[in-house]
UniProtKB/TrEMBL annotation, chains A, B:
<dbReference type="Pfam" id="PF24102">
    <property type="entry name" value="FLAD1_M"/>
</dbReference>
<dbReference type="Pfam" id="PF00994">
    <property type="entry name" value="MoCF_biosynth"/>
</dbReference>
<dbReference type="InterPro" id="IPR056596">
    <property type="entry name" value="FLAD1_M"/>
</dbReference>
<dbReference type="InterPro" id="IPR036425">
    <property type="entry name" value="MoaB/Mog-like_dom_sf"/>
</dbReference>
<dbReference type="InterPro" id="IPR050101">
    <property type="entry name" value="CinA"/>
</dbReference>
<dbReference type="InterPro" id="IPR001453">
    <property type="entry name" value="MoaB/Mog_dom"/>
</dbReference>
<protein>
    <submittedName>
        <fullName>Molybdopterin binding motif, CinA N-terminal domain</fullName>
    </submittedName>
</protein>
<feature type="domain" description="MoaB/Mog">
    <location>
        <begin position="10"/>
        <end position="173"/>
    </location>
</feature>
Length: 247, 247
């Protein structure tokens, strides 16, 4: 399923607790790295509240712009979990208890010896036309409808759902990366680096400083889907840095 | 400067390295918690690439919707640091070397014994009409123009800049929080909690599960700017949980 087209994605993180600062999000970085590894370009991330209007507006904006939209959060059993309903509203489809999800959840509740309450069965409410995404951790499924992939917010659960859905995604050419580490501040190499970017306009070039262990260092990162061009860019940069005694 | 109005904010994280998954963002959570502590409601976060069009569009959308927009990233010395120019473009103002910033940077370079190069002096380019935000860590200033607050991406630097600019911000009524911890899954209390939300529609109520140490637990979080209403909601919820033997 991989090819040379550019496949893009956005992530929509849904959760009051992220916006209040109570909970640091861990899903953005995990999904971003995963997308890079399978050749999908993550282009935008948004974080919105557990609010229907906010979710509907963001979903409709993002699903139109990118190949895929991945949402996290808000598919649990409590009243603040409104994502499934908001997705159905955004896509203009009905939503009710999906027999496949009901069966999975009821079997799980029996195994665990807990009561099947209306609140718990909210997790079986799936928009019409969606495919389920398996959740081996806690059973309540995610789902995919059109190009919208709806995952849990709890990181461990989100990660297994993402693994499950990956086989269904179109992927593009994988972005390759080369990193050159320097024990110097970015300012020392900025002019050289800018000129090198001009020489290789199709290789994305970024410079990232750090101050770890009290020492200033810089990582120069080159990215391209073209391995041959990337290697030429890397060699050319190394030659210039060497000639200035910077590596 | 605090009052009873609702003061809102959005955060715009600018950086290819966040979208590629190379670097986990640490600023969203820090800023979110800081906003909560000073009574500003963070309503939305976006992450975009180091791309002028993307930055301009996001800046214009967000600065119109909220009291403040805080951006992080892209104000360093390298060619991929394009935030200051993009902000000037979005606001339709000129940008060039600001004498105040030039003075700060030149003095810093002299102290450090490094050359003042064109690349380094890019960090003195500030949109016309902006006020500077001090950077005691690495000197290159942030800035604030209209309701747009432009900070560094490096977390340590961002945090000191945020501290510096806080005194200039209007703040609102502080959101107060009460948390009740249960050693039970969310599903056990979801119906009770939903009914309690109906009883106290002006108190935000959210339920957050966790699976730490192999044990399922849930935190019920109540939030309100009205301390008296919050306490009544908390007491009412505790009474119900007690009567069902859940705490």
């Amino acid at each position: 399923m991989s090819g040379e087209e550019t496949v893009t994605a956005a992530v929509l993180v849904i959760g009051d607790e992220i916006l209040s600062g109570r909970t640091p999000d861990r899903n953005i970085n995990y999904i971003a790295a995963h997308m890079t590894s399978i050749g999908i370009r993550l282009r935008e991330v948004r974080v919105v509240a557990d609010d229907e209007r906010e979710i509907v507006d963001a979903v409709n904006a993002l699903r139109a712009r990118y190949t895929y939209l991945i949402t996290t959060g808000g598919i649990g059993p409590t009243h603040d979990d409104i994502t499934a309903d908001a997705i159905a509203k955004a896509l203009g489809v009905p939503i009710d208890h999906d027999p496949r999800a009901v069966e999975l959840l009821e079997a799980y509740f029996v195994r665990r010896g807990v009561t099947s309450t209306p609140a718990r069965m909210r997790m079986a409410r799936i928009p019409h036309g969606a495919e389920l995404i398996a959740n081996p951790v806690s059973v309540a499924p995610g789902f995919m409808i059109d190009n919208v992939i709806v995952l849990a917010g709890v990181p461990d659960v989100m990660q297994v759902m993402l693994d499950d859905v990956t086989a269904r995604l179109r992927t593009g050419a994988k972005m390759l990366t080369e990193t050159i580490k320097l024990s110097r501040p970015e300012g020392d190499v900025a002019d050289l680096f800018a000129a090198h970017q001009q020489a290789f306009p199709d290789v994305a070039m970024g410079s990232y400083p750090s101050f770890a262990d009290g020492r200033i260092s810089t990582q120069l990162v080159l990215r391209s889907t073209d391995s041959e061009m990337l290697e030429r860019a890397r060699q050319g940069l190394m030659a210039q840095l060497n000639s200035r005694g910077m590596v």
